[in-house]
Amino acid sequence: MAEEKALNDQMVARRQKMKALVDDLDLDPFGKRFDRDSMAGDLHAQYDQSSLDDLMENQHEVIIAGRMVAKRGAGKVIFADIRDASGKIQIYARRDDLGDNYPIIKRADLGDFLGIKGIMMKTEAGELTVLVTHLTHLSKALRPMPDKYHGISDVETRYRKRYLDLIANEDSLNKFQQRSKIISAIRQYMDGQGFLEVETPILQTQAGGAAARPFITHHNALNIDMYMRIATELYLKRLIVGGMERVYEIGRIFRNEGMDAKHNPEFTTMESYVAYFDFKDVMDETEGIFKAAARVVSDDLQINYQGTAIDLNKPFARKHMVDLIKEATGVDFWPAMTIEEAQQLADQHHVKYEKYWQVGHIINAFFEEFVEDTLVQPTFVYGHPVEVSPLAKKNADDSRFTDRFEVFILGSEYGNAFTELNDPIDQRARFEAQAAERVEGNDEAEGIDEDFIEALEYGMPPTGGLGIGIDRLVMLLTDSTTIRDVVLFPTMRPE
Fold first, then answer.
1. Which is nearest to 307 in space by CA: 380, 376, 370?
2. Is 476 helix (H, G, I), strand (E, B) or coil?
3. Residue 270 contacts residue 292 (beta carbons within 8 Å)
4. Aminoacyl-transfer RNA synthetases class-II family profile domain spans which residues (predicted)?
5. SS3 of 253, please?
6. What's domain 2-145's architecture?
């Protein structure tokens, strides 16, 4: 058979064993529903400190199920490791105890799923074990498992076939369990602060809320192009207009951009908006979110990322962008200057700029070139120029800058926030400036969202908004060096 020729020896042997389950043992190779009453992790928590004598005297009966990931022994006695979502536990099977049931474990391959009824015990070496009294075959694995000692040697296979990564690498499974708990902790914090979780459209007729290139698709029924959202911002602010005073959304964002250690075309953010807040209030909110998330992995909020200690317990530093640039380079952008003077400073310090840039763009470029990488401990950088902050409110004391901040840790940006621009006239002017940049060649600049401007014309209260990159935060808290390690199914080039 052509199919048989395409199989390696191990796969052929497994198919033969599958047939034997039917022919010799009258079993369904892919099983049926099974009731278990215990998980491996719970059994360890409950019985690891018990003595062998106590366990044998009390005869605690349990029912477990999971994948067999190790097997030792032969003949009349077999030890095996069974793994479920909570961890691993050893089982001990004896032919004298199981009789006609014993061939199930004897013929089982690594990767097969088994149901086990048994008695808690410990070996002479002190390892917690389930003494098997009955076995149920639940599912046959027709392909061999990855080598438990070497895992998956091809890194790309870990991302393309995440299921194999989760089988072979307990660290990966633990990391994604932590991710889920981190997101849950953020939700609990936000809900506890009186926020309402909402959902906004992923398909939009106009992409806005960020400087990014969108993915474009076509809606056949309406015969219009639509865009995968690049941010949740503009719809969430519409809800503030509508009277929802505290809202947040955790959801997928899509940006048609390159991929690297910190970027994937689809990623997860949390955005929140609070009526009557300003950006300083949002700083306090952000600290609360980060600390709630960090408690998942560290009770004292001290974490270690690639050998660098990070203290998330103490108050985050708060620094103006212009002050940080002056500290790093000696260049002082506080005095008003012309674009020619700013370009001259950029030339002197070898900072590249585009022909359509204004002074604010150059200030931001100085920050990115000389300051960003130096911010190790949690730092709020505020006072971004108007030119790079089209949705933020101007600072009341210096209209060149906005009431905006970004939070930096280890040279990376983890959150972006500002006192929201709620003046529809100013907002239109900012959108028009962005549209002009698009004409000049900035294909990430926003267009003019007329519906959003109309919403602002009905009145939006002073509002503080926040956006946090969930994937980057999970990377930080799980000591991961690439976003692909914290996204279950990252975008990959087709094989």
1. 376
2. helix
3. no
4. 176-494
5. strand
6. Beta Barrel (2.40)
**What is 13-60 written as a DSSP string?**
HHHHHHHHHHHTT---TT---------HHHHHHHHTTS-HHHHHHHT-
Judging by DSSP bridges, how do beta strands 404-409 and 379-382 pair with one another?
antiparallel
- In angstroms, what is the C-alpha Rg of the chain? 29
CATH 3.30.930.10 fits 167-316+378-485, yes or no: yes
What tokens appear for 495 in the block?
């094989």
Contacts of 350 (CB under 8 A, 6+ apart): none
CA atoms of 215 and 185, how far apart (whole Å): 31
CB 104 within 8 A of CB 97: no
pLDDT tens string for the chain (495 positions)? 445 456 789 999 999 999 999 999 999 999 999 999 999 999 999 999 999 889 988 999 999 999 999 999 878 999 999 999 999 999 999 999 999 999 999 999 999 999 999 999 999 899 999 999 999 999 999 999 887 545 566 788 889 999 999 998 889 999 999 999 999 999 999 999 999 999 999 999 998 888 889 999 999 999 999 999 999 999 999 999 999 999 999 999 999 999 999 999 999 999 999 999 999 999 999 999 999 999 999 999 999 999 999 999 999 999 999 999 999 999 999 999 999 999 999 999 999 999 989 999 999 999 999 999 999 999 999 999 999 988 889 999 999 999 999 999 999 999 999 999 999 999 999 888 888 887 877 767 777 889 999 999 999 999 999 999 999 999 999 999 999 999 999 999 887
Angle formed at CA 382 by CA 376 and CA 385, multiple of 5 degrees:
125
| 257 in a known ligand binding site | no
C-alpha distances (whole Å) from 472 to each of 61, 290, 291, 298, 412 are 44, 12, 15, 17, 9
To the question of whether residue 446 is assigned a binding role by annotation, the answer is no
Alpha helices in 229-388 (DSSP H): 233-241, 279-294, 321-329, 339-348, 359-370
Contact 362, 340 (CB under 8 A): no
